[in-house]
C-alpha cells in the first residue's frame, strides 16, 4: 500500500486560503465604499462648487493656463487640481463624482504610500497599522471625499515624506535612493502646482529643523539637490512662465497677495486663535487619541548614534507644520491634513508597542464613548438655525444614529476579538468600524448639502435659462448653482472673492445697482440670482421681477413678466 504524500505545511505567518479571501473581500468593500460614495452628496459651498465650476470653465474653454471663475481671472491657486478634474470631465463627463475623483485618488494614494514607507522602516505590522489608523481618521476620510485643494496638497506632501523615507533606508541601493529622491522632488512640484509655495516651504522647514534637532547634516548630501531641484523646476516653471507672460498682473497677486499677505494678515477674514487646530487635530484622529501617550515612547526608539532617524523626521513634520499653520493669519480646517499621514505612522508605532491589556482598556473606553454618542444622537433632531432649519436636523438624526450604531457594533466586535487574543483582527475591525461609521455620517450629510447646493432650483431655472442669456449674481456669488446650471454669473455691485478679476476685466461685471437696473429693464431677457433680503429690497423699489425659483438661501428671478417673453 502506497502511503499518501505528506501534507504541505504553510510557512510561518502565511494566511490560509479562507483568510486571504476574507482580506480581499474587505479590501474590495473598502475600495467600493471609498469611490462608490463620491456622488452620494451634492456639492457644498464654497470650495466644492468653486473648484468644480472653475474646472468646468477650463473644460469648456480649453484654456489650461489662465484660470477663470465666472469668466473672470482667478489667480488664488495654481491649476494642478483643476487639470486633474478636467481630465476626469473628459474621461467621464461633467458630474459631482468626477469633480471629487482626484481628491479620492489623492487620499487613497497617500494612504498607500505612507503605509508602504512605514512597512519598509518598521515592519509589516506597523505598515498595516499605519494604513488602518489613517483609514479610520474621520478628517482624512472626509477630506478625501471633499472637492478641495487641501487633500491634493496633503497627499503630495505625504508622498514626498514617504519617498524621502524610502530613499534614506539603510538597505536602499544608490540607484534606489536616486529614484526615490527624484520621486520626492516631483511630488513637491505637484504640491507647488496644487497650492503654491507651501509645497516646498513646508518640506524645507521640516528638513532644516530635523537636521538641527537630530544633528544629521549628512542627510543633505543624500538629497540629490541639484538634479532634484532641476526636475522640480522643469515641472513647475512652464505654467508659471506661461501664465505670467499672458497675465502680467499674475505674479504680484499670486506671490504677494496670496502668499505673504494671506499668511501674515487676516486679509481673507479667516482668522482664528492660535489653538484653533488643536480641536481640529483631535477630531481628525478621534479614534486613536488614547495612543498619544505612547508616541513619546516611540520617539525614543531607534539607533543611539546620530544617523538618520525616521521617527524624529516624522515627529518634526507633525510639529513643524502644525505650528506653521497655527501661526498663520488664515486658518481653515483642511490646512491640518498634511499632519495626519506622519502622525498615523507615529500612532501605529505606539499601537504596536501597546500591551494587550492596555488596548483592551482603550476599546472599553471607545465602547462607552460611542455608546453615549448613540444615546445622544436623537437629540440632533432638536437643533436648528436660520441657515439650517430644524427640518434638516430631523432628517439627519437617523443617519447620525446609524453611523453610531455601526461604529458601536464594530468596537464591540473588536473587543470580542481582542479578548480571544486576535490582536491584529481587533485593530482592523476597530478601524473599519470608524471608517464605515464616518462614511455613513458623511453620506447622510447630504440633507444639508442638497439645500446648500440649490440643486432643487435647477429644473425651474433651466426651463428659463437660454444659451448666452445673462445670469446676474446680485450681491451674491453663488458657488454651486453655476456648476449645476453650466452657466456663469455676471457679478453685480459686490464682487466677493472675484474682486481681483473684476479689476482686471471691468467690462465683465456691473459695479453699481444703477447699472444693473438699466441692464435689467432695458436689456435682453435675463435671470438674476440674489438673496431673499435683496429680492425684498428690489421688489419694494418697483424693479420688475418674476420669481422663477426660490429656497431659503437664494431667489432666482426673470426680467420678463408672464406673457412678455
Tell me what you see in this structure.
With 565 residues, the protein is mainly α. It folds into three domains: 104-354, no CATH class; 369-452, no CATH class; 455-558. It has 24 helices and seven strands. It has helices spanning 17-36, 47-61, 80-92, 96-122, 124-136, 138-144, 149-167, 174-195, 198-214, 225-246, 250-264, 277-284, 292-299, 310-326, 340-353, 356-376, 390-419, 423-444, 446-453, 458-464, 481-485, 499-504, 513-522, 532-540; strands at residues 68-69, 72-73, 471-474, 490-492, 527-530, 546-550, 555-558. The strands form two sheets. Strands 4-3-5-7-6 form a five-stranded mixed β-sheet. A two-stranded antiparallel ribbon has the order 1-2. Helix 21 (481-485) links the parallel strand 3 (471-474) and strand 4 (490-492). Helix 3 (80-92) crosses helix 4 (96-122). The longest helix is centred in the C-terminal third of the chain and has 30 residues, at 390-419. The chain is globular and about 75 Å long. Mean pLDDT is 92; it is low at 1-16.
Amino acid at each position: 500500500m502506497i502511503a499518501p504524500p505528506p501534507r504541505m505545511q504553510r510557512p510561518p505567518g502565511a494566511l490560509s486560503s479562507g483568510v486571504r479571501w476574507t482580506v480581499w473581500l474587505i479590501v474590495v468593500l473598502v475600495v467600493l465604499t471609498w469611490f462608490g460614495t463620491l456622488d452620494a452628496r451634492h456639492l457644498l459651498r464654497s470650495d466644492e462648487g468653486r473648484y468644480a465650476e472653475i474646472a468646468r470653465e477650463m473644460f469648456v474653454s480649453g484654456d489650461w493656463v489662465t484660470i477663470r471663475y465666472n469668466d473672470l481671472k482667478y489667480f488664488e491657486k495654481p491649476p494642478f487640481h483643476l487639470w486633474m478634474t478636467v481630465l476626469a470631465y473628459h474621461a467621464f463627463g461633467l458630474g459631482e463624482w468626477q469633480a471629487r475623483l482626484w481628491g479620492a485618488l489623492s487620499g487613497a494614494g497617500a494612504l498607500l504610500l505612507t503605509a508602504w514607507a512605514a512597512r519598509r522602516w518598521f515592519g509589516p505590522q506597523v505598515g498595516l497599522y499605519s494604513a488602518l489608523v489613517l483609514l479610520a481618521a474621520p478628517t482624512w476620510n472626509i477630506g478625501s471625499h471633499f472637492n478641495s485643494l487641501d487633500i491634493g496638497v496633503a497627499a503630495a506632501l505625504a508622498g514626498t515624506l514617504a519617498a524621502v523615507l524610502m530613499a534614506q533606508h539603510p538597505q536602499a541601493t544608490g540607484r534606489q535612493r536616486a529614484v526615490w529622491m527624484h520621486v520626492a522632488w516631483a511630488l513637491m512640484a505637484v504640491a507647488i502646482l496644487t497650492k503654491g509655495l507651501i509645497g516646498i516651504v513646508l518640506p524645507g522647514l521640516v528638513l532644516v529643523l530635523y537636521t538641527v534637532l537630530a544633528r544629521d547634516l549628512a542627510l543633505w548630501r543624500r538629497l540629490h539637490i541639484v538634479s532634484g531641484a532641476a526636475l522640480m523646476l522643469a515641472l513647475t516653471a512652464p505654467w508659471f512662465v506661461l501664465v505670467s507672460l499672458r497675465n502680467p498682473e499674475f505674479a504680484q497677486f499670486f506671490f504677494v497677495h496670496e502668499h505673504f499677505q494671506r499668511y501674515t494678515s487676516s486679509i481673507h477674514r479667516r482668522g482664528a486663535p492660535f489653538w484653533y487646530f488643536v480641536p481640529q487635530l483631535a477630531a481628525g484622529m478621534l479614534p486613536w487619541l488614547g495612543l498619544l501617550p505612547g508616541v513619546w515612547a516611540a520617539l525614543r526608539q531607534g539607533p543611539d548614534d546620530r544617523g538618520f532617524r525616521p521617527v524624529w523626521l516624522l515627529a518634526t513634520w507633525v510639529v513643524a507644520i502644525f505650528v506653521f499653520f497655527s501661526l498663520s493669519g488664515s486658518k481653515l480646517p483642511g490646512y491640518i491634513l498634511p499632519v495626519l499621514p506622519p502622525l498615523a505612522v507615529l500612532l501605529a508605532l505606539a499601537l504596536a508597542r501597546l500591551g494587550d491589556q492596555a488596548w483592551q482598556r482603550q476599546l472599553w473606553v471607545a465602547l462607552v464613548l460611542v455608546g453615549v454618542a448613540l444615546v445622544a444622537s436623537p437629540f440632533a433632531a432638536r437643533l436648528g438655525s436660520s441657515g439650517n432649519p430644524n427640518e434638516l436636523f430631523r432628517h439627519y438624526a437617523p443617519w447620525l444614529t446609524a453611523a453610531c450604531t455601526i461604529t458601536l457594533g464594530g468596537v464591540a466586535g473588536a473587543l470580542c476579538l481582542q479578548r480571544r487574543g486576535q490582536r491584529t483582527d481587533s485593530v482592523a475591525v476597530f478601524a473599519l468600524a470608524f471608517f464605515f461609521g464616518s462614511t455613513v455620517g458623511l453620506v447622510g450629510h447630504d440633507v444639508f448639502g442638497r439645500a446648500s447646493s440649490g440643486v432643487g432650483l435647477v429644473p425651474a431655472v433651466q426651463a428659463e435659462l437660454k444659451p448666452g442669456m445673462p445670469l446676474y449674481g446680485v450681491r451674491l456669488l453663488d458657488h454651486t448653482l453655476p456648476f449645476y446650471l453650466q452657466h456663469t454669473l455676471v457679478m453685480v455691485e459686490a464682487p466677493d472673492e472675484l474682486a481681483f478679476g473684476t479689476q482686471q476685466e471691468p467690462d465683465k461685471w456691473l459695479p453699481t445697482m444703477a447699472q444693473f437696473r438699466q441692464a435689467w429693464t432695458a436689456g435682453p431677457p435675463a435671470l438674476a440670482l440674489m438673496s431673499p433680503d435683496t429680492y425684498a429690497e428690489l421688489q419694494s423699489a418697483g424693479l420688475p421681477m418674476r420669481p422663477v425659483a426660490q429656497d431659503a438661501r437664494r431667489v432666482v428671478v426673470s426680467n420678463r413678466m408672464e406673457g412678455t417673453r
